[in-house]
Each structure stands twice: as C-alpha cells, then as structure tokens.
Recover the amino acids of this structure.
C-alpha cells in the first residue's frame, strides 16, 4: 500500500510540474532554453561539475541549474552559486519539466527526479528534451547498455581519439551524436600541485555489490588490497622515499571503506566524504589501479601508472556487463601490468628510482591516445550543445 501511495504521489508531482512549467514558459519565454545538469545526484566532482563551473564563468546568462541531494557533502559548492536544486524536491520536478536540455555524466543521472519511476512508466516518451551524455569516464569496453537503440542521447561526449572511433564503429549511434570534444574535467588537470604521494584507486567488482560486511571481509579483493596496505616491504619503500600513500576505493566500494586498515603511518585510507577524486589525481605522482578508467585522467597529465590486476581472468569473465573493447593493457597501457604483490612492489621501486619520470614508450602511447589536448574541452562541449538547442 505504501508503495502504491508513493507511486501515485510521484506521478501527481510529475504531471503537476509539467503544467506549472508550461505556464512559466508562457509568461517568461527565457525559460524555453533551460538546462539541467547533474552527476549521480549526490556528488559534484566529475564532468558535470566542471562543465557547470565553466558555464557559471563563461556563460552566466544561460539558465542552467545543478541537481544534487541536499545532504551531500558536495552540496555547499553548488549552493554558493545560487543555482542549486535539491534532488527529489518538488522544485526538482518543476525544473525537470521546464528543461529542454538534460546534461548528465550518467545514462539515468541525478537530473531525473526518481529515475526508476521515470523509466518504469515510460515518462521519457512524453518528453522532447535533448540529452547530453558527458560520461563518467572514458569508455574502453563494450557496454551493452550504451548501445543504440538501448541508449539514445543527442550528444555522446568522448575524451580520446581511439574511444571516439570505437564508439562510432561499434555503438551504432546516428551520425553526429558521438563527438570527440575531450572530457570537461580535463580542463582542471593543467595546474599540477603535486605532493610526495602515491594514489591507489581500484575499481569495484560486480560480485561484491550488495554483500554484507562479513562476506566482503572474506573476499579475495579485500584480502589482496588489505595485505598490501599492511606490507612491511611497502612501509620500508614509503619511509625510504619519504612518500605518503593514499588508498581510495571506487564509489561502489566506499560502503566498505572502514573495513580497510593499515598500521603504516604513511598510509591514508580515504573516504568519499572527505576526499575529492580530481584533487587526489592532481596531487599524486604515481597512480596504482586495476581496471578503473581514472588512469586515463592520470595519463592525460603524463604521470606514471601501474596496473595491479590480480584477478584479471575473473574480472574479464564475470564483471558487470563487461565485454572487452578496443583497449589492451599489455600493448596500449600507460604503465607496467603486474599480477601479484611482489611484482607490484618491484614496479613501485622502479618508478621511485626513476623519480616519477614517465618512460618514453608510455609518453608516446599517451600522446597518440590524446591528440586533442588543451584547456578548451568545456568550450567545445558548450558549442556542441548550442548547435542542438
């Protein structure tokens, strides 16, 4: 009964919001070109946020509003701009009805109020809104959910040349939808305020989603990373190099972040509420990851990467809707690929001996991957949006 009542309330709010929106546009025509932007709905630290910042600076005349949960740790950044919309509020419903252009990092992002109902009842079929898919990160694999006609944005932003070519070829979107502009957040990577710091950022695993704490503590994923974070050899390496190490697991693993502990004083276990991914990437001199696409951002800055892939076979066979795409870690990767702790520690020592200087072969791969490299990514995205609205 509660679910039925909640569903009825959402539908009433949805259709009431559309009536109000039409009245607003009737009496104030400037709202006919109204943009709504968001990420997951509880964050402001990705392509959505950096494009929003650009709009506030370069095009403040454009009506654009950012949707984020009121209790989010990132909400203060948006509230300061005066363009804040609380996720799930009635105002959110009205602004969503009002917008003629949705901009999001996720296919069903936080710009949509109660996205599950929006999909379930096919409400998107009633709308003629343009949708700009900024992406959460560079796509390197075949993701079924993003193939046309399963997914049909008006603009599909790409951040690299091989990615653009692959998506044009395999994802089957109509001509002109997929565009290589560069990621919005890349504009923020030009000011390098680095620290003596190593960053570890592993991605999530499908088979770990939704399991309890006890099961997570029994997982190979937890065991491998926690053993590394308490390795006496790692402690010696960090002490000798006078370097700090920050461990920041993926958004989907953050619910288990308190499970990780380290007795090493130079190791920091970082959580979502107190650490910003972009800032960590900018500050670090070396990135250690497994399969997370954050390594593209790091490589964009031409800094060394190490891939620690202890469960590579299982990840490829079982992870999410993963199907190997164009990117091959062994031939296209921007750093060494290792499969066990000892190899990883050896690779770290090698990078330290090189004083974090990127090897020429990896530098060549990076520059081939990112032929478009400047601080005009947001500008190109804005120009692309302006053409369709």
């Amino acid at each position: 009964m509660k679910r039925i009542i909640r569903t009825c309330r959402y539908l009433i709010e949805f259709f009431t919001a559309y009536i109000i929106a039409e009245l607003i546009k009737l009496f104030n025509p400037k709202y006919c070109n109204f943009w709504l932007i968001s990420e997951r709905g509880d964050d402001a630290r990705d392509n959505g946020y950096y494009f929003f910042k650009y709009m506030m600076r370069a095009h403040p005349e454009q009506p654009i509003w950012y949707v984020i949960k009121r209790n989010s740790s990132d909400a203060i950044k948006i509230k300061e701009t005066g363009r804040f919309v609380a996720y799930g509020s009635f105002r959110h419903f009205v602004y969503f009805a009002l917008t003629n252009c949705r901009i999001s990092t996720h296919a069903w992002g936080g710009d949509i109020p109660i996205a599950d109902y929006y999909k379930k009842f096919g409400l998107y079929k009633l709308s003629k809104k343009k949708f700009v898919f900024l992406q959460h990160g560079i796509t390197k694999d075949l993701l079924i959910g993003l193939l046309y006609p399963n997914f049909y944005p008006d603009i599909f932003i790409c951040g690299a040349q091989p990615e653009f070519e692959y998506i044009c070829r395999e994802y089957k979107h109509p001509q002109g939808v997929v565009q290589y502009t560069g990621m919005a957040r890349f504009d923020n990577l030009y000011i390098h305020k680095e620290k003596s710091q190593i960053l570890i950022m592993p991605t999530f695993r499908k088979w770990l989603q939704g399991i309890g704490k006890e099961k997570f503590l029994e997982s190979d994923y937890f065991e491998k990373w926690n053993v590394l974070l308490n390795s006496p050899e790692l402690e010696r390496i960090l002490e000798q190099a006078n370097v700090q190490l920050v461990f920041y697991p993926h958004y989907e693993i953050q619910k288990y972040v308190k499970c990780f502990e380290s007795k090493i004083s130079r190791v920091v276990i970082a959580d979502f509420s107190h650490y910003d991914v972009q800032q960590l990437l900018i500050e670090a001199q070396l990135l250690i990851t497994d399969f997370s696409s954050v390594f593209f951002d790091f490589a964009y800055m031409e800094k060394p990467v190490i891939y620690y892939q202890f469960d590579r076979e299982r990840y490829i066979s079982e992870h999410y809707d993963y199907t190997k795409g164009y990117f091959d870690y062994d031939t296209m990767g921007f750093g060494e690929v290792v499969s066990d702790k000892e190899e990883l520690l050896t690779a770290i020592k090698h990078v330290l001996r090189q004083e974090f200087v990127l090897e020429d072969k990896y530098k060549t791969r990076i520059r081939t991957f990112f032929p478009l490299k400047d601080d005009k990514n947001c500008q190109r995205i804005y120009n692309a949006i302006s053409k369709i609205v």
Remarks:
- The chain has two domains: 2-188+375-388, 192-369.
- The longest helix spans residues 2-27.
- The mean pLDDT is 93.
